[in-house]
Amino acid sequence: MCAVGLEQVVETMRPQPVRALAGVPAYVTGVAVIRGAPAPVLSVGALLDGDSPGGDLPSARLVMVGRGQPYAFAVDEVIGIRTVPEQVWRELPPLLRSVAGVTAFAAVDGEPTLFLDAARALPGDTWDALEPDR
Protein backbone atom coordinates (compact mmCIF):
# COMPACT_ATOMS: atom_id res chain seq x y z
CA MET A 1 0.00 0.00 0.00
CA CYS A 2 1.15 3.57 -0.66
CA ALA A 3 0.26 6.96 0.76
CA VAL A 4 0.69 10.57 -0.31
CA GLY A 5 0.27 13.69 1.78
CA LEU A 6 -3.24 15.09 1.46
CA GLU A 7 -1.76 18.58 1.08
CA GLN A 8 -0.21 17.41 -2.23
CA VAL A 9 -3.44 16.04 -3.71
CA VAL A 10 -5.44 18.40 -5.89
CA GLU A 11 -8.03 15.91 -7.16
CA THR A 12 -8.60 12.36 -8.31
CA MET A 13 -9.73 11.68 -11.85
CA ARG A 14 -10.13 8.99 -14.45
CA PRO A 15 -7.08 8.22 -16.59
CA GLN A 16 -6.45 10.66 -19.44
CA PRO A 17 -4.70 9.90 -22.77
CA VAL A 18 -0.93 9.82 -22.26
CA ARG A 19 1.81 10.70 -24.76
CA ALA A 20 5.09 8.83 -24.23
CA LEU A 21 8.36 10.72 -23.68
CA ALA A 22 11.89 9.59 -24.50
CA GLY A 23 14.71 9.99 -22.02
CA VAL A 24 12.69 9.84 -18.80
CA PRO A 25 12.79 7.15 -16.10
CA ALA A 26 10.86 3.96 -16.96
CA TYR A 27 8.16 4.71 -14.36
CA VAL A 28 7.23 7.96 -16.14
CA THR A 29 4.60 6.70 -18.58
CA GLY A 30 4.49 10.04 -20.39
CA VAL A 31 2.62 13.32 -20.34
CA ALA A 32 -1.13 13.96 -20.16
CA VAL A 33 -2.95 17.26 -20.56
CA ILE A 34 -4.72 17.89 -17.28
CA ARG A 35 -6.75 21.07 -16.84
CA GLY A 36 -5.02 22.52 -19.89
CA ALA A 37 -1.44 21.93 -18.69
CA PRO A 38 1.07 19.18 -19.53
CA ALA A 39 1.51 16.86 -16.56
CA PRO A 40 3.96 13.97 -16.18
CA VAL A 41 2.23 10.69 -15.35
CA LEU A 42 4.06 8.31 -13.01
CA SER A 43 3.11 4.65 -12.73
CA VAL A 44 3.24 3.87 -9.02
CA GLY A 45 3.54 0.15 -9.79
CA ALA A 46 6.55 0.72 -12.06
CA LEU A 47 8.05 3.18 -9.56
CA LEU A 48 8.00 0.55 -6.83
CA ASP A 49 8.71 -2.55 -8.96
CA GLY A 50 11.48 -0.92 -10.99
CA ASP A 51 10.03 -2.33 -14.20
CA SER A 52 8.54 -0.61 -17.22
CA PRO A 53 4.79 -0.07 -16.80
CA GLY A 54 4.07 -2.13 -19.91
CA GLY A 55 2.13 0.42 -21.96
CA ASP A 56 -1.30 0.51 -20.35
CA LEU A 57 -2.15 2.68 -17.38
CA PRO A 58 -4.09 1.14 -14.53
CA SER A 59 -7.80 1.22 -15.24
CA ALA A 60 -8.43 3.03 -11.97
CA ARG A 61 -8.03 6.75 -11.32
CA LEU A 62 -5.04 9.03 -11.42
CA VAL A 63 -4.27 11.01 -8.30
CA MET A 64 -3.55 14.63 -9.25
CA VAL A 65 -0.75 16.11 -7.22
CA GLY A 66 0.64 19.65 -7.33
CA ARG A 67 4.22 20.96 -7.07
CA GLY A 68 3.95 24.33 -8.71
CA GLN A 69 2.85 22.42 -11.80
CA PRO A 70 0.64 19.36 -12.01
CA TYR A 71 1.75 15.75 -12.12
CA ALA A 72 -0.20 12.54 -11.68
CA PHE A 73 0.20 9.13 -10.10
CA ALA A 74 -1.33 6.24 -12.04
CA VAL A 75 -2.76 3.95 -9.36
CA ASP A 76 -4.86 0.80 -9.18
CA GLU A 77 -7.31 2.33 -6.72
CA VAL A 78 -7.82 5.17 -4.30
CA ILE A 79 -8.80 3.69 -0.93
CA GLY A 80 -9.65 6.91 0.87
CA ILE A 81 -8.37 9.51 3.29
CA ARG A 82 -6.67 8.36 6.49
CA THR A 83 -4.81 10.13 9.25
CA VAL A 84 -1.57 8.37 10.06
CA PRO A 85 0.17 9.93 13.07
CA GLU A 86 3.59 11.36 12.31
CA GLN A 87 5.26 9.20 14.97
CA VAL A 88 4.18 6.04 13.08
CA TRP A 89 6.28 6.94 10.01
CA ARG A 90 9.86 5.66 10.02
CA GLU A 91 12.97 6.80 8.19
CA LEU A 92 13.88 4.49 5.34
CA PRO A 93 16.64 1.97 6.04
CA PRO A 94 19.63 2.19 3.66
CA LEU A 95 18.34 -0.75 1.60
CA LEU A 96 15.16 1.17 0.64
CA ARG A 97 16.66 4.62 0.07
CA SER A 98 17.27 4.01 -3.63
CA VAL A 99 13.53 3.69 -4.42
CA ALA A 100 12.73 6.94 -6.23
CA GLY A 101 10.03 9.02 -4.60
CA VAL A 102 9.69 6.94 -1.41
CA THR A 103 10.49 9.09 1.62
CA ALA A 104 9.23 7.07 4.62
CA PHE A 105 7.42 3.87 5.56
CA ALA A 106 5.07 2.62 8.26
CA ALA A 107 2.89 -0.29 9.29
CA VAL A 108 -0.73 0.80 8.84
CA ASP A 109 -3.34 -1.75 9.91
CA GLY A 110 -0.64 -4.41 9.71
CA GLU A 111 0.23 -3.52 6.09
CA PRO A 112 3.56 -2.09 5.01
CA THR A 113 2.83 1.39 3.68
CA LEU A 114 5.24 3.53 1.66
CA PHE A 115 4.99 7.32 1.71
CA LEU A 116 5.47 8.75 -1.79
CA ASP A 117 6.61 12.18 -2.92
CA ALA A 118 6.64 12.21 -6.72
CA ALA A 119 8.36 15.58 -6.79
CA ARG A 120 11.44 13.74 -5.51
CA ALA A 121 11.01 10.93 -8.04
CA LEU A 122 11.32 13.15 -11.10
CA PRO A 123 14.77 14.52 -11.92
CA GLY A 124 14.96 18.32 -12.20
CA ASP A 125 15.75 18.18 -15.92
CA THR A 126 12.49 16.27 -16.50
CA TRP A 127 10.57 19.09 -14.77
CA ASP A 128 12.54 21.59 -16.90
CA ALA A 129 11.56 19.72 -20.08
CA LEU A 130 7.89 20.13 -19.18
CA GLU A 131 8.12 23.91 -18.71
CA PRO A 132 6.65 25.86 -21.63
CA ASP A 133 9.13 27.93 -23.66
CA ARG A 134 8.93 31.58 -22.72
From TrEMBL:
<dbReference type="Pfam" id="PF01584">
    <property type="entry name" value="CheW"/>
</dbReference>
<dbReference type="GO" id="GO:0007165">
    <property type="term" value="P:signal transduction"/>
</dbReference>
<protein>
    <recommendedName>
        <fullName>CheW-like domain-containing protein</fullName>
    </recommendedName>
</protein>
<dbReference type="InterPro" id="IPR002545">
    <property type="entry name" value="CheW-lke_dom"/>
</dbReference>
<feature type="domain" description="CheW-like">
    <location>
        <begin position="1"/>
        <end position="127"/>
    </location>
</feature>
<dbReference type="GO" id="GO:0006935">
    <property type="term" value="P:chemotaxis"/>
</dbReference>
<dbReference type="InterPro" id="IPR036061">
    <property type="entry name" value="CheW-like_dom_sf"/>
</dbReference>
